[in-house]
Write a structure and sequence with these properties.
Elements lengths: L8 E6 L3 H12 L4 E4 L8 H4 L20 H6 L9 H14 L6 E2 L4 E7 L4 E6 L4 E9 L21 E4 L14 E5 L3 H13 L2 E6 L5 E3 L7 H9 L1 H10 L18 H14 L15 H18 L3 H7 L12 E3 L2 H4 L5 E5 L5 E5 L2 E4 L3 E3 L2 E4 L8 H4 L2 E3 L6 H4 L18 E3 L12 H21 L2 E6 L1 H16 L29 H13 L5 E5 L3
Parallel strand pairs: 1-2, 1-6, 2-3, 4-17, 6-18, 7-16, 8-9, 8-16, 9-12, 10-11
Antiparallel strand pairs: 4-5, 5-6, 13-14, 14-15, 19-20
This protein binds ligand NA7.
Ligand NA7 binds next to helix 5.
Family: Belongs to the FAD-binding monooxygenase family.
Pfam families: FMO-like (PF00743)
Cofactor: FAD
Length: 538
């Protein structure tokens, strides 16, 4: 056994993003001793790291904010419909100060090992700072999109110009003025940052492997009157959001796409298009269920996009051919497609001419050479499991979580795994997380775990553990639900398809945020059905 160098605590929380911060607040409020470890030097998680130009949330600021404190939501003023990364970071810092959270957070420190003591059922948690503490509960709040994917491209490490991954952007910023810049990757991050880099750089080459669907975000400043109305309507807005499919109050059209006239369909799409943002992919309830319904959305989208791109050949390359709309996370943008009309922007089609190698001064595709001064990697994340995987989590019988998840993540309700008592994972695989508003989702998970801990204490139990049967049947249910949609037909990060060798398992729960909330509430109400309570005398 490792020596304890710190005081024992009730709960260790790993990560000080939206989920970790609220976990600290809620559990400390319940009288528990909580210690948070955070790899970054500040709070905010994804919003601490992703500082690339143009970084902005694709969920409305009024929704992408904590609901747990009425005073907080009434006091805080969002300046725009969709908040920028700096504004969200200011908000998270405000929350940390307002609720005096920093005193229990150790920054600049990674948790390296989390080892179960099977006698006491406590966890020994070790950090890269050499500290080991013992905790009854461990809550991972490491974020589903936090482990950056650095592509294995030959020669990348030889490049002598600056290399910047969007999720590890230098805090002092990067000046691309007068530079020849390459961007690899055209997912949400690439699509947000490309228009900004294009304005600064002398020349921008965008290296696109797969085209994506993007919808204008339709961001607008919020005036005082709108803010007042939003604040007055918060109670109802939150109520609807917690019942909704994605964690915001917007409802899909009452009919399926194929049940309405063509005119009504176009009107509905046009309305969502004007509203802007990700909601376009949820205009009709059957849009990601039925290929023909999906095709109507796609056709509408294609018409809009082609109309703003000057060169039809470029437009052709920017229209996805390999997946249905909404089956990968839809992107939102400001003038993304128009950026390709600029003289200093060039689209490189990696499908036709893949990158052969990178060297000191540029990128060679199989077709051409591109001399570059800087390279931006907008290449995404080893999503949902990547950050957990880096921690050596050892449960019963010396079995690691990585061994347990070798064929893909296995969870009950996304929250627990058999063999790992009192260990909870927030907003990870098996939960709707990445398909929903992460802030409300974090609150839902934290509240559920906090209630569970209270339940254990009132029932004299030391621990709780998901049963193997519950884990197996939840996995089956998640897989079956996903297979009944079009979501499994795209090579998305939801499926692990973006990481070579990663097991292909559709990781999020697709049944909707509201439905998921009901399921986990029912499990709790039934005395945590599917979990085993372990009492002290055993
Ligand atoms: P994404 O959506 O995973 O996008 C990554 C992009 O990088 C995508 O276009 C990839 O092409 C491309 N990529 C990845 N590896 C390579 C290599 N080796 N060569 C060329 N291109 C590559 O990540 P984002 O950061 O944009 O967004 C992640 C989520 O964050 C987003 O969905 C929102 O929920 C917020 P591919 O499609 O794999 O062909």
């Amino acid at each position: 056994p490792q020596a304890d160098t710190g005081a024992d605590v009730d709960v260790v929380v790993v990560g000080a993003g939206f989920a970790g911060l609220y976990a600290l607040h809620r559990l400390r409020g319940a009288g528990l001793a909580v210690r948070v470890f955070e790899a970054g030097d500040g709070v905010g998680g994804v919003w601490y790291w992703n500082r690339y130009p143009g970084a902005r949330c694709d969920v409305e600021s009024v929704d992408y904010s904590y609901s747990f404190s009425e005073e907080l939501q009434q006091d805080w003023d969002w300046s725009e419909k969709y908040a920028t990364q700096p504004e969200i970071l200011r908000y998270v810092n405000h929350v940390a100060d307002r609720f005096d959270l920093r005193r229990d957070i150790t920054f600049g420190t990674r948790v390296t090992d989390t080892v179960l003591d099977e006698q006491t059922l406590r966890w020994q948690v070790s950090t890269d700072a050499g500290e080991t503490i013992s905790a009854r509960f461990v809550i991972f709040a490491v974020g589903p999109l936090s482990n950056a994917n650095i592509p294995a491209i030959e020669g990348l490490d030889e490049f002598q110009g600056g290399v910047y991954h969007t999720a590890h952007w230098p805090h002092e910023g990067v000046d691309f003025t007068g530079k020849r810049v390459g961007v690899i990757g055209t997912g949400s991050s690439g699509i947000q940052t490309i228009p900004f880099i294009a304005e600064q750089a002398e020349q921008l080459h965008v290296f696109q492997r797969s085209a994506n669907y993007s919808v204008p975000a339709g961001n607008v400043p919020l005036d005082e009157e709108t803010r007042r109305a939003q604040k007055a309507g918060y109670a109802e807005r939150r109520r609807l959001s917690f019942l909704s499919g994605g964690g915001s109050p917007h409802q899909a059209h009452p009919s399926n796409a194929l049940e309405v006239s063509e005119e009504e369909r176009r009107e509905a799409y046009e309305k969502r298009w004007q509203l802007g943002g990700v909601l376009f992919s949820k205009t009709f309830p059957d849009q990601v269920l039925d290929a023909d319904a999906n095709a109507t959305a796609r056709e509408f989208w294609e018409g809009k996009v082609r109309a703003v791109i000057d060169d039809p050949e470029v437009a052709e390359l920017l229209i996805p051919k390999d997946h249905a709309i909404g089956t990968k996370r839809i992107c939102t943008d400001a003038n993304y497609y128009q950026t390709y009309n600029r003289a200093n922007v060039n689209l490189v089609n990696l499908k036709a001419t893949p990158i052969a190698r990178i060297d000191e001064t540029g990128v060679d595709t199989t077709g051409e050479r591109y001399e570059l001064d800087a390279l931006v990697l907008a290449t995404g994340f080893d999503a949902m499991t990547g950050s957990l995987e880096k921690v050596n989590i050892v449960g019963r019988d010396g079995r690691t979580l990585n061994q347990a998840w070798a064929e893909g993540p296995r969870t009950y309700l996304g929250l627990g795994t058999d063999g790992f008592p009192n260990l909870f994972n927030l907003t990870g695989p098996g939960s709707p997380s990445v398909l929903a508003n992460m802030v409300l989702h974090s609150e839902l998970h934290v509240n559920w775990v906090a209630d569970l801990i209270e339940h254990l204490d009132t029932h004299g139990a030391v621990a709780i553990e998901a049963t193997a049967d519950a884990v197996t049947s939840w996995g089956r249910e998640c897989t079956e639900r996903a297979a009944s949609t079009l979501m499994t037909t795209a090579n998305s990060w939801y499926l692990g398809a973006n990481i070579p060798g990663k097991p292909r398992v559709f990781m999020p729960f697709v049944g909707g945020f509201g439905a998921y909330g009901e399921i986990i509430a029912e499990v709790a109400a039934a005395g945590y059905k599917g979990f085993e309570l372990i009492v002290a005398s055993e």
